[in-house]
Amino acid sequence: MSIPDQEYAKVIENLKIKGNSFVEQELDIQEGQALNFEEYIQKPRFAKIKNKKYVPVWNRKDKYEPLTEFQHVDRGHFADPSFKSLLSKKAGTQDYIDGVQVRNLTPKFGTEINGVQLSALDDAGKDELALYVAQRGVVVFRNQDLKDKRIEQVEALSNYFGRPHIHPTSPTVVGHPEVFLVYHENSPESAVSGIASRSTSTLTWHSDVSYEKQPAGTTFLAYLQGPSVGGDTLYADTQEAYERLSPEFCKRLEGLEATHSGVEQVNGALARGGVVRRAPTVSTHPVVRTHPVTKRHSIYVNPGFTRAIVGYKKEESDALLKFLYDHITKSGDLQIRASWEEGTIVVWDNRRAVHTATYDFDDVLTRHAFRITPQAEKPSEK
Ligand SMILES: O=C(O)CCC(=O)C(=O)O
Ligand SMILES: [Fe+2]
């Protein structure tokens, strides 16, 4: 169900009334004559940003129609499971060539790789990446040069794995709305102290854009700068979480569906005078989904966007979701934490891994990363 047009018009009207409390007028990059990106990136607000190509923009003029359905064929289907293009195994052996280091972070979930350059992968390597990430859930690649390449190359990578998603509310890169930015700066709105004053924890577990009809699949987050320590991203394995449930409990979940909502995210953007590019969506997805390539099941609910179990009374829905969230987010033995360095790219499969940023660092810092978010198939239980 998407929000009807009249509702959307009200939302936009509200935005105009609220004005620009957080995103000042000068941050509106207009098309054509008003665009002067050179001046914009020199603003004192952005002085601490190292990679000016990725300076955040919030363009109020960007408006998009509701997303349409498309057919997704996962690249993992085409992969050579020996991973010889991705990991450059020596012909006929299980050994990696010199310089490629592969270290599993836990037995079943998460791997760190050094010595593979994602920007240089050929199509066979990219297909293997899709499969490898599906099999490991999260893969941390160090020393990546993608941030120094043309943004067109970043977009092409996104396009390869699915349909690049344009986020309804997050900052983007001028001229490249498919590039999603994580941007934390020392402003009252984003300060860690602000978050900490509202909540005892800064964690916000979610699977990216699960409110879309076809949510994210193989997803990349590339780090540009941030604290020397802290700001790790936590990931939890919802496939392992499913496999730990009793057969009786799995039967209870069979056939259940849940609603996922993007409305609150849009309302949050409106409340701070932010950008809304598209009317928010609410989708219904199975509680257990099957990965199209690995055929493994995972629990597809998350505290960030899931709202209710379809057909359950409120108390029943709240109780079941609370159990599933606790099981996933409090089981440290199915989680990893990814630490970041300039040039780290983490690739994860949003069908399997839920994640959260951590705001445990000094709030005077700029934390800056870009994400590409290819949309995948409509979640399906079978
Ligand atoms: O900032 C982070 O650590 C993660 C942000 C996030 O949730 C994302 O990029 O999908
Ligand atoms: Fe996320």
From TrEMBL:
Co-factor requirement: Fe(2+)
Gene3D superfamilies for the chain: Clavaminate synthase-like
InterPro entries found in the cross-reference section: AtsK-like, TauD-like_sf, TauD/TfdA-like
MF GO annotations: 2-oxoglutarate-dependent dioxygenase activity; metal ion binding
Domain TauD/TfdA-like per the UniProt entry, residue ranges: 102-373
UniProt keyword annotations, A-Z: Dioxygenase, Iron, Metal-binding, Oxidoreductase
Alphabetical list of Pfam families matching this protein: TauD (PF02668)
CC annotations in GO: cytoplasm
Keyword Signal listed: no
Keyword set includes Oxidoreductase: yes
Highest taxon listed in the record's lineage: Eukaryota
Record-stated family: Belongs to the TfdA dioxygenase family.
Name of this chain's protein: TauD-domain-containing protein
Lineage, uppermost ranks: Eukaryota, Fungi, Dikarya, Ascomycota, Saccharomycotina
